[in-house]
Amino acid sequence: MKRIDGREGGGQLVRLAVALAAIEGVPVRIDNVRGGRDEPGLRAQHVAALQTVGTLTDADSEGVEVGSETVVFRPGPILGGDVEIEVGTAGSIPLVFDTVLPLAMATETPFTVRATGGTDVKWSPPIGYHRFVKFPFLQRFGLAAEIGVERRGFYPRGGGLATLKVSPSDVAPINCQERGELKGVTIHSIATADLQEAEVSKRQVNGARDALESEIDVPISTRSESVQSHSTGTVVLVVAKYEHSLAGFDALGEPGWPAEDVGKAAAQELRRFHHATGAVDRHLADQLLPFLARAGGGITTPTLTDHVRSSRALLETFGYEVDVQTDSERTRISTGST
């Protein structure tokens, strides 16, 4: 049984440990879950993620409940099939999907996860980041998975509904160390219907576009949408399409924060990335680690995050060698043959 000290990371460490256990078919024990956080133990979205993997693998588990600081997870073979899960209020659906997605590299049977909760919430990538950045990037290397969004869920009530469909995937080595030329930018802006009269979605687009046009000389396309949701909310996602890569930068609207400034904030993140030299943004670098470990390859990113540091140590516990080299311009992360 693999033994993990949960004080070395947060919820991502727990979710990645369970995903790796399922892929490798080995049991894992995690002590001091989120022990370095102000409120240690599992939160609702972690429980939902672990329950989903547990259902897909017919796992024998202990401690999978809110507040638990010790988890034991003994997976069986990946069964496939259909799973429905309630993350709870505005718990993050994307983080549940993040946990499950690496199983695509080990399953022999397709599976579907239908989840209710938050689609666009703090401390999590918005669902659009998965749809327009992470999934298209990984599909280039052989991932067979897609996401459908039926209803958006914002804080505090959540109520969003999304479906993840996964098929067995032979993922090729992920080599993306140079991003190439910037080919275009797309601004995705969403606001709930109660904000339509104030044109919040369009104003977010305007703020992002104004911040980009003076510095980036490529076509900028826009998608502005009004949606129904249980809670008021807005989100903007700015996606950069490079010759060899994709990158995404988002911002969530908040009361008192002008819509134009919400869009501008996401655009400024893209500007900073564009003036750096990494091939993938820091969030994608974090999320690619299990795929790099399993498939091999190498990527570059502008900065080394705490998530990469803690995940690297976890991957090495499972027998994967992860090489991280950082210089003044970027960080290179590689595994296996590059």
Automatic annotation (TrEMBL):
Domain RNA 3'-terminal phosphate cyclase insert: 178-274
Active site, UniProt feature: H307
Keyword Ligase: yes
Binding, ATP: D98, H283, L284, A285, D286, Q287
Function: Catalyzes the conversion of 3'-phosphate to a 2',3'-cyclic phosphodiester at the end of RNA. The mechanism of action of the enzyme occurs in 3 steps: (A) adenylation of the enzyme by ATP; (B) transfer of adenylate to an RNA-N3'P to produce RNA-N3'PP5'A; (C) and attack of the adjacent 2'-hydroxyl on the 3'-phosphorus in the diester linkage to produce the cyclic end product. The biological role of this enzyme is unknown but it is likely to function in some aspects of cellular RNA processing.
Family to which this protein belongs: Belongs to the RNA 3'-terminal cyclase family. Type 1 subfamily.
Name of this protein: RNA 3'-terminal phosphate cyclase
